[in-house]
Amino acid sequence: MLSRTAENLYWLARSVERAEYIARTIDATLRVTALPAAYIGKTNEWESALLTAGVSASFYDTYDEANEANVVEYLSFSPVNPSSIKNCIENARLNSRSVRTALTSEMWDTINSAWIELQEVWSKGTSSREELAKFLRFVQETSLRFDGSAYRTMLRNDAFWFSRLGLHLERADNTARILDVKYHVLLPEEEHVGGPLDYYQWTSILRSVSALTAYHWVYRETLKPWLIADLLILNDTLPRSLASCYGNLVRNLDQIGVAYGRQGASQRHARGIRNRLEHSNMDDIFQHGVHEFIQEFIADNSRLGEIITRQYLI
Amino acid sequence: MAVAFDEMNGPGGDVRPAYQELSRWLKETPPDALEYRRQEAELLFRRIGITFAVYGDAEATERLIPFDVIPRIMSAKEWTILEKGLKQRVRALNMFLRDIYHGREVLRANVVPDDLIFQNPVFRPEMNGQAVPHDVYVHIAGIDIVRVDPENFIVLEDNARTPSGVSYMLENREIMMRLFPDLFARHRIAPVERYPDELLSALRSVAPNNASSEPTVALLTPGVYNSAYYEHSFLADKLGIELVEGRDLIVKNDEVFMRTTEGLKRVDVIYRRVDDDFLDPLTFRPDSVLGVPGLMSAYAAGNITLANAVGTGIADDKAVYSYMPEIVKFYLGEEPILKNVQTWRCREPKDLSYVLDNLGELVVKEVHGSGGYGMLIGPAATKATIEAFRDKLKREPEGFIAQPTLALSTCPTCTASGLAPRHVDLRPFVLTGKDRVTIVPGGLTRVALKEGSLVVNSSQGGGTKDTWILDE
Known about the structure:
The structure holds two protein chains of two kinds. Chain A is mainly α. Chain A has helices spanning about 5-35, 35-40, 45-50, 55-60, 70-75, 85-100, 105-125, 130-155, 160-185, 200-210, 210-220, 225-235, 240-260, 265-280, 280-290, 290-314. Chain A is built from 16 helices and no strands. Chain A starts with a helix and ends with a helix. Chain B has helices spanning about 20-30, 30-50, 75-100, 105-110, 115-120, 165-180, 180-185, 195-205, 230-240, 275-280, 295-300, 315, 320, 325-330, 350-355, 385-395; strands spanning about 65-75, 140-145, 155-160, 215-220, 240-245, 250, 255-260, 265, 270, 305, 340, 345, 360-365, 375, 400-405, 410-415, 420-425, 430, 435-440, 445-450, 460-470.
């Protein structure tokens, strides 16, 4: 297929996944900030929301204070924030238009209808918490619909595989970022960085990767930080864990390699990361330093993106 | 201006045979049911994303072309004549182009004046002596047809460059079948859905000789911001070919390749929807980012077929248009089946003075204009507009032609105040391949939605209708 088509499919999937992640982040932050201060400590949750979205530096170009109104506006609607939900959906629609021939009509319809529906929200904004919640739910549902229609209607060929690469790469990045921001802030031995370890913080993290119920099913225990880390990093039964994302990345890259009769740097690099995840356990990771581990992962993951781009997309 | 011929209610006011069933159906159908279907159609179009962009219109960069749910109908007999006339006309267009870029017999025989060709900016000297596969220049032609009476079909314009609108012909039909299954059951309507297949086989048939037996065809688009982008992606999808932009193509050793995830892949035929000027920055406009550097050199080497060929603009130029009846006779030795609109060439002093004296009654068009821009419709214009146009005309007479204001035929159309006659035209699409010319029975009917308006262009408030050719 055309390199540009593959590139568009890849970024289309990334944009939709990111829109969903940002929506989840806002959602989770709204819930935790609704709690009395005694339950969540003194950390500014809106500040962490910006950090997990990876836009805290650019935020202060526009705003002075990380409060609810400003952060929700910046993450949801801001035209200057490249990762705002608005920009993600706009990009997704633009990418979809560029590769209409590679999309099934169900996928196109999902993106196009969402885009049409959201025009009103863009122009008016959300005037109440209820409206905001409705909007965030709509974004998450759009992502689910898009993912579902891709999964159910696309031919299993390179178009599908490239779109899956975008999805899992973005997802791995998102999960890693949340861990990066939240986990080290909340580690008991690094108390100076953040507030006390708190149950509600943990539920919030799990909620933002839709893994709260999953946690209880997997561990049948009360929330414990190292188990949460285990779930999000190493447990490959959880779709948003790093291990699961890398299982998928390796699988999809292998399928491309088989179809094209050729493997390359991206297959090798992805396999390297997956092997490291497979051969790690939480004890080692704690010993090595969770923060360092996550930071390395984020760098490795974004390198994979570059390698895929060089090998296939340009 | 004479009263227009209404295609349903005929000159005597009797419903014409092709419209009998529709007329009965309209009587049975309550008006709000029509309105409801109209809204439904609009919703469908918006969801499918059939939009077009209007340049210079920041507010609505993506607009829908209004769709009118009342079909325009033609009998098999009418179509047979039209089809024959269209084939004749397009054959002559192709022979004319071959001749202009080779022996130029038509100039030597003084059928067409030399300067009209050589001083014309759309004449491409690069094409002189250049062979094109099977001598086909215009693979896809959109011939704009109007009627003023039941007997004659008149060509308003030949579109021999990159005619658009065929996606509407196909989508309008799909939507009509969805919205009015009962109305379809009451008619025998010739299908249009094989158009993409016909187009693909025409394109494949003209692949270069050194192409593989399964030639690779690609559709070249200027990109998502082009007004006809929807159509480009729609056609690429229906044809099952890659939709490429200039940056996806690269020329190496005079061969054209596309960049794919598996490396470079040779392309044999390009159905290009990019204008000549932007095709190759090395040959034409150096600032073009839409084109492919080196494409013309690959073309000259015979390694790529461009459809339509470069330089076809010389055949649909409005000044050359006025010579089409003679051109048909010259190459085919036949009487033209389709009539031309009487045309005054302002480049000729006698014609110019007539036009200047009668500006109030004439339609004056720019020779190189399209899309209904830059034209004067005398009877509808204010005095000031006419005077301003008069100055323009005197400054540059060779840039204009003039025609009488035609009473274009009308068709019943849904309006705010119920069904009312509105002026229509028709653009059938004529395909020319290696050894045959084909036309899918139908075309794009455009309708001027404003009462009394004669401008059917979508950029100027025109709409579209489904076009039914009845099978006997």
